[in-house]
Amino acid sequence: MSHPNVCAVIFVVASLFSLGANALGQSREDKVRNDRLRVSKSGLWHYNDLDAGFEEALRTNKPLMVVFRCIPCVECVKLDDDLLEQNDSVVESMRKFVRVRQISTNGIDLNRYQFDFDQSFSVMFFHPDGTLLGRFGTRSHHTEWEDDVSIAGLGAAMKQVLEWHSNFDSVRDSLAKKQSTNLTHIPVASPEKYPTLERFPPSFDLANVTIKNCIHCHQVGEAQKSFALSESKTESLPMDLLFPYPHPKILGFILDVDTCATVKEVVADSIAHRAGFKAGDKIVRFDDQPIISFADLQWVLHLKPNTAIAIPVTFLRDGKSTTVSLNLSDDWKASGDISWRASSWELRRLVLGGMVLKELDKSERQKLGIADGAMALVIGHVGQYAPHNRAKLAGLQKEDVVVGVLGKKNLTREVDIIRFLLDQRQTVKQIPIEVLRAGKPMSFELK
Fold first, then answer.
1. Whole-model pTM?
2. What is the dihedral of CA 300, 306, 312, 314, to 10 degrees?
3. 66 forms bridges with which residues in the sheet?
4. Helix H or strand E encompassing 316
């Protein structure tokens, strides 16, 4: 028979991360209220109270596990529903942590809580003294997550964190670079101090839930981009904001989601392939930082400049430790995909007038006689309401195929066009757009 305390924890884990299919029919505020009800009944989690979590961690000398979870986001329901199951080993590990369920970013310390704000599920592990032990939570698609996170992967990360906590003095110095005080895009102490978020309160009142008062994670990313663009009158958006937290796959790493960072596959002729990596290699240090997950690798890449640079990587192969260099070339971050990121919507509004552009498939290109390497992006969405409706007002329509922008005809991805137009934003007031509509060439002027 199961021990009653274990059953209680299992219930909380299952309910904490499972809103269920019925949640889709609930209002946004009901989702938050019901989530709080499920979690608070157990008394095992601090709900939206980071200070209380750290106080208990200091008192008990347990590591702290902070789960950032955007409850109202519809895209996150399946992640919350499926990611964590009633897994005995993970439940047992969770009992060794102080746990915080954080559902808003109002008032959080941006110098302490540094993570990919486009994630809807992100975990940060801390030592009671505030030292960051590691990050967990990665996504490379708007809704799909199976290739990036898993229950087993979270369990592996937790196991490693517990080991470091028990031997903290021996690893303390190596963990120092997991946080940074030199991030230029964090000029304010907390999200609501950004100009575009000043309308929000410094804390989210759970007693009187008003979703409009909640700062979602992706809004922090949007605010960082807006602030950087408002401060820069001539320069484009910094690459660490345009291409934040690069995914390891752009280097050729296909990692096993059930481990901390074990190579499952290496893409042929990639940076990882040229460095000599093979399937089965277990990455243990990346730029001399200990690793517990994909997200830890992304943190390192996030801080690196978009120039030619070598990153030392230590891995285990057949029990033997080896260190090699990943040699990155100029503009390496530009190969990343940002189309899935919620914070990209503001960029689409700014330079695309509210359009969403998707690459035209090969068969359609052939039908239209568009050569390989030439621009061919089909409009998948056109914003209907201000301020996202400038493309609509210009006459552009869904299913139009964009073949030229401001005279350029070789920009093959949406992000390439966004980046190009950001560079032009101070000098260009009208953007000529060439399209094919039902195969017929047409031209429009986008303000």
1. 0.89
2. 40
3. 100, 124
4. strand 309-317
